[in-house]
Amino acid sequence: MIKVSIVGVTGYTGLELLRILKRHPYVNLEVISSKSHAGKSLSYHFPFSFEEKMIEDLERSIELAQESDVVFLAVPTGVSYEIANKLSKPKIIDLGADFRFNDPKVYEQWYGKKLENYEKFDRVYGLTEIYREQIRNARIVANPGCYPTSVILALAPLLKEKLLLDQTITVDSKSGVSGAGRKDSAEYSFCELNEGMKPYSVVNHRHVPEMEQELSKLFGEKVQLVFTPQLAPMTRGILSTIYVKTKASLLDVYHLYKKFYEKEKFVHVLEPNVFPSTKWTVGSNHVFISMTKDERTDTLVLISVLDNLVKGASGQAVQNMNVMFSLEEDLGLVENPIFP
Ligand SMILES: NC(=O)C1=CN([C@@H]2O[C@H](COP(=O)(O)OP(=O)(O)OC[C@H]3O[C@@H](n4cnc5c(N)ncnc54)[C@H](OP(=O)(O)O)[C@@H]3O)[C@@H](O)[C@H]2O)C=CC1
Ligand SMILES: CC(=O)N[C@@H](CCC(=O)OP(=O)(O)O)C(=O)O
């Protein structure tokens, strides 16, 4: 059995991790912790979790979690780095952004924080389908952001084959509100979000440098992104629409994608002109990619959907854990979406 701990269990991704890990046949839950709910059981605060384990405070959980095989860090970006500095023994899967960047200066520029001694950490970007081999032996896995997972998976085959005419890519993404975590502010209240849509962090979202880093690696040259994220009045889900110029035919692109993802359990390439809904993914680790082409303008339109809390966060984190412990990749994740 794998001894697992969750730091930040009371957040949306922490609770989702718990939900997935409870149905994992080889997991023993050891330590759970949070910042402001310590001292009582999880079920005291969240009866639907059916988890009687006591929530520890951060300091105590770090001490106890040293004996775990793997620790999931489901805490705000910035906090993870401090915790990882104290957790010398277990493997770490960080759901935040602290370990996602090759160059800590890029992180500093976008997140406003210096990461001391970043080079000492042996870390791998945790987009499972792309970095599976490196993830196997990693001590620290940097789980990708939710938008980057949806965008990079939708572009990887095209970029690897160098089928781009223009290295500036336009991306429009809609996200469910759970993507923002359990925020307690008017901006995220029901009245302000229900029956409305609103863009935020247009062209300067923190996921831009993360996506550019990974897309450039796939393409082998610098790629730039114009990115518009939007809050959609739904709880879960991301729908990304990506516009790229290419001379490749729609059918060739489709066959390329089918081949690229043929062995993947969670990435599904739809036939041209079949378009998915975020509803196809709720509660599951599946991603759907669809495509069409505007022949007049040589524009390929790629659309991907996923559940931000599952493939976009906790599901992919467990998928990575399975890879790190040489288990079947879908253990704990064999779940169909909740539809409708
Ligand atoms: N939501 C999403 O869809 C996605 C989130 N992520 C990333 O996952 C991480 C967790 O996100 P999410 O679950 O949404 O966030 P939430 O805000 O819902 O939860 C945050 C969790 O961290 C705990 N926490 C907050 N501050 C501290 C602190 N200073 N020290 C220790 N624990 C603290 C909270 O405890 P308490 O509330 O008890 O104080 C809570 O358990 C973040 O890095 C986020 O960027 C990544 C991909 C998608
Ligand atoms: C809707 C919403 O607010 N989404 C979050 C992205 C969630 C995520 O992936 O965040 P990290 O990169 O910090 O892990 C945002 O835009 O910041």
TrEMBL record:
An MF annotation (GO) of this entry: NAD binding
Catalytic reactions of this protein: N-acetyl-L-glutamate 5-semialdehyde + phosphate + NADP(+) = N-acetyl-L-glutamyl 5-phosphate + NADPH + H(+)
GO process annotations (BP): L-arginine biosynthetic process
Superkingdom per UniProt: Bacteria
Alphabetical list of SUPFAM superfamilies matching this protein: Glyceraldehyde-3-phosphate dehydrogenase-like, C-terminal domain, NAD(P)-binding Rossmann-fold domains
Pathway(s) this gene product operates in, as recorded in its UniProt entry: Amino-acid biosynthesis; L-arginine biosynthesis; N(2)-acetyl-L-ornithine from L-glutamate: step 3/4
Record EC number: 1.2.1.38
Predominant place of localization: cytoplasm
One cellular-component annotation, GO: cytoplasm
Domain Semialdehyde dehydrogenase NAD-binding: 3-138
Subcellular location field: Cytoplasm
List of catalytic residues: C146
Xref: InterPro entries: AGPR, AGPR_AS, AGPR_dimerisation_dom, AGPR_type-1, NAD(P)-bd_dom_sf, Semialdehyde_DH_NAD-bd
Keyword flag Oxidoreductase: yes
Annotated SMART domains: Semialdhyde_dh (SM00859)
Keywords from the named record: Amino-acid biosynthesis, Arginine biosynthesis, Cytoplasm, NADP, Oxidoreductase
Alphabetized Pfam families for the sequence: Semialdhyde_dh, Semialdhyde_dhC_1
Family membership: Belongs to the NAGSA dehydrogenase family. Type 1 subfamily.
Role, per record: Catalyzes the NADPH-dependent reduction of N-acetyl-5-glutamyl phosphate to yield N-acetyl-L-glutamate 5-semialdehyde.
Record's protein name: N-acetyl-gamma-glutamyl-phosphate reductase
Organism of origin: Pseudothermotoga thermarum DSM 5069
